[in-house]
Amino acid sequence: MRTGFPLARPGQRIGLLGGSFDPAHDGHLAISRAALRRLRLDRVWWLVTPGNPLKRHGPAPLDRRMDTAARLARDPRIIVTDLETQLGLRMTADTVAALRHAYPGVRFVWLMGSDNLVQFHHWDRWRQIAASLPIAVMARPGSRLQARGSVAAGILRPARLPEARAALLADARPPAWVLLNLPMSPLSSTTLREAMP
Ligand SMILES: Nc1ncnc2c1ncn2[C@@H]1O[C@H](COP(=O)(O)OP(=O)(O)OP(=O)(O)O)[C@@H](O)[C@H]1O
Ligand SMILES: O=C(O)c1ccc[n+]([C@@H]2O[C@H](COP(=O)([O-])O)[C@@H](O)[C@H]2O)c1
């Protein structure tokens, strides 16, 4: 499956859930729906990456991951897209810059599970990403506490919004981030891959 570029109007609030989706699972759906509700988003785009720059082993072929993700995204507000592949981009800093340029006036929010905040300071130009758009970190079993004590959380401490103000995040001037506690899903792609015959 190949997608065009998703439509978005200025003023819309769009969550970006970047991921390998190798494969997609109901945990992705659960955090996307929680983000839609708690952050008052209009849409969540699943950015199916050509490959996580920090992972040594490449993921399954893009088409297969896109097909599964499209089946799993059972919500009309969730859009599955391979736009990073179309743009020839892999680093999140480049993706965010390209989207802000291509969609002026759209309020993007980066979404990530708490496991990703733990290693966020290893991402390419991570401070630039945090200065470019608000970030919502979704609690995930096994990494919620670690995320609170992570290098990035420490450096970005002054920019953290209280959870009660999460609905304001999309309008906040970056750097701004929130840690969302939600009913946690233990699902992971790793577990699903290990269970595959
Ligand atoms: N159950 C979950 N709870 C919270 N966040 C999640 C969950 N599953 C995935 N995420 C987040 O969704 C984004 C995309 O995740 P990804 O596609 O890598 O799935 P994954 O289950 O983390 O895969 P893997 O086990 O291969 O690392 C990441 O920011 C990740 O932290
Ligand atoms: O840009 C980077 O340096 C970078 C490093 C690690 C992860 N990312 C992005 O983080 C998202 C989550 O990746 P993953 O593999 O945990 O699903 C995905 O969009 C990756 O491209 C980006």
From TrEMBL:
It is an enzyme of class 2 (transferase). Residues 16-194 form the Cytidyltransferase-like domain. Its EC number is 2.7.7.18. Pathway: Cofactor biosynthesis; NAD(+) biosynthesis; deamido-NAD(+) from nicotinate D-ribonucleotide: step 1/1. GO terms for molecular function: ATP binding; nicotinate-nucleotide adenylyltransferase activity. It catalyses: nicotinate beta-D-ribonucleotide + ATP + H(+) = deamido-NAD(+) + diphosphate. It comes from the Bacteria. The keyword Hydrolase does not apply. Coiled coil: none annotated. Keywords: ATP-binding, NAD, Nucleotide-binding, Nucleotidyltransferase, Pyridine nucleotide biosynthesis, Transferase. InterPro entries: Cyt_trans-like (IPR004821), NadD/NMNAT (IPR005248), Rossmann-like_a/b/a_fold (IPR014729). The keyword Nucleotide-binding applies. GO terms for biological process: NAD+ biosynthetic process. Belongs to the NadD family. Catalyzes the reversible adenylation of nicotinate mononucleotide (NaMN) to nicotinic acid adenine dinucleotide (NaAD). PANTHER family: NICOTINATE-NUCLEOTIDE ADENYLYLTRANSFERASE-RELATED, PHOSPHOPANTETHEINE ADENYLYLTRANSFERASE. This is Probable nicotinate-nucleotide adenylyltransferase. The lineage of its organism: Bacteria, Pseudomonadati, Pseudomonadota, Alphaproteobacteria, Rhodobacterales.
